[in-house]
Amino acid sequence: MRKLLLFFLVLGLLLLSPPLAIAQQTAVDFFENGIGKSKSGDYTGALQAFSMAITMNPENSASYYNRGLAKANLKDHRGAVLDYDRAIELNAKDALAYLSRGVSKSKQEDHRAALLDFSRSIELNPDDPQAYYNRGVSRSRVDQPKGALTDFSKAIELDPTNVQIYYVRGVTKQRLEDYSGSVADFSKVIEMSPKRSQAYAGRGLSKVELNDFTGAVADLNKAIELTPEDGDSYFYRGYAKSKLEDYKAALPDYDRAIALKGDNYQAYYGRGFCRSKLGDQKGAVQDFNQAIDMNNANAETKVIYNGRITHAVLDNLRNVVQERNKINELSSERAEAYFSRGLSKNKQGDPKSAIADLNKSIELSPTYAEAYFSRGMIKSSQGDQKGAIMDCNSAIKLNPRYAEAYYVRGIIKHSLGDENGGCLDLSKAGELGYNPSYKVISDYCN
């Protein structure tokens, strides 16, 4: 009887301790499940599956690589880089891991580090056009247009059907003042993708530089037809018409360029020139005044809303944030009183006095994160977006878990054209529990 009990006890222990092959198979199952979820677009589910696979088999480089891809698709490029780092540690010959890590570094504007990764990827797989394309983009970002041109040309040699590469090579040739060469590239883009307005706009600009003003007008007509809100195309079409001495036709183009981009001092100059030629000297002088004043203004103080989050959208998204004004014990410096009085003055419609009070509050209590954040909110509402970002930076430095500060900084960055940086901040705000971020991410980061 005792032997029989011992037999069942040993059998039970064996059942509780599955062999290594079964455990390994389970890790494989999680890995394959992650691949399936990635293919279906469920990147959150994929991330969880790859994490389980890594827990069960932490030496599998492919699990880290694919989890990195999932994170990248969720805009978590910092997390993605960490996973690619580990994948490369485990498999230093994985060209795709270097390529993907370079992409995530580029998304964080770390283009010099990305260059190294793209170069290593090319060493390991010299026939991958995507690696040359990405390295060319990074070279463009670090002001190496000649190197970028070489990379784009190699990418085209390897993949002559990729319309995007012809487009960026055309833009690069413009930077190098090879306008005839850029016309050929933009023409190829138009041949392959006739609805791409940027190609018509690019070719039109090159034709302006080549003094082919009639051809430029034709191209810019098409660009505007495809993208009616492209202020630059109106400006260059107005300029081309002015060079053709068709001042009456040029005038509405300058009007529209100014309406779409109010700080375009060149458009004011062009409109003033046309008005002068058409006998409207009073209007001409007003426009020349604007051109002179704008051209001499400190460019750093100007704000250009060139992201998909426009000024109006920014105001709406920012104003949903609730202020953090909870009563605290009044310190001997009375910083809290200045802070609360500042908020009250702002609600009364006196933002200038409100900022003065918040300045005093910060002067008395330099670690007052809420005061920096509230001052940033007011600055943003007054159009000082760069000042608002600086205040959000200070609030976050003082309180790294300040979710609302990440949120506000994210929507401001996005509105100023830093879509990647803005979306990363929104992602962080969501991670810290500020759920309205996910609605903004869904609308503007995908």
TrEMBL record:
Pfam families: TPR_16, TPR_8. TPR repeats lie at residues 27-60, 61-94, 95-128, 129-162, 163-196, 197-230, 231-264, 265-298, 335-368, 369-402. SUPFAM superfamilies: TPR-like. The keyword Transport does not apply. PROSITE patterns: TPR. SMART domains: TPR. Residues 1-23 form the signal peptide. This is Tetratricopeptide repeat protein. Keywords: Repeat, Signal, TPR repeat. The keyword Membrane does not apply.
